[in-house]
Amino acid sequence: MMKRIVGIAALLLLTVAVAAQSVNQSSKISPWLAAQVRQATVDGVRRAPVMSRPVDVLLKLTVDADETEVLSRYEAALLSRIGRVLIVRLPLQQVTALAADARVERVEAERMPRPMLDRVAGQIGADKVWSGTQNQLPQAYTGKGVVVGIVDSGFDYIHPFFRDSNGETRIVWAKDYLNGQLYDGKTAVTAAMHSSDAAEMYHGTHVAGIAAGSRVEDADWDTPTAYQGIASEADIAEGAVDASITEGGLSSATTVQAFSDIFAYAEAHGQPCVINYSMGDTQSFYDGRQLEEQAIRTLLQKPGRALVVASGNSGGTARLAHKTAAMSAGGAGVCFNDWESYGTYFGIELKVKSGQTVTLRYTDTGYTTNKATVTKTVAELVAASSLGMGSKLLKVQHRGQADGYEVIYVGCNSAFTTSDRVLVTISGDGEAWLYADALCAQLENVSSVENHQLAEQGYSVCWPAVMDEVVSVGNIAHRFQILTLANKYASQGGQATPTDLTEMESTKGEGYLARSSSVGPTLAGGMKPDVCAPGVNIVSAENFFISDDAYYSVAAWDIAALDTESEIWGTAVGYFHVMAQTGTSMSAPAVAGTIALWMQADPTLTTERIKDVIAHSSRQPDSGLTYPNNQYGYGEIDAYKGLLYLLNLTAIEELSDHQPQRASFRLDGRRLTVSFADGSQSAATVRIFSVDGRQLLQTTDTTVDLSALPTGVYAVQLTTGQRATTGSTLIRL
Question: Which of 254, 264, 267, 383 has a CA positioned 20 to 30 A from the CA of residue 328?
Answer without folding.
Answer: 383
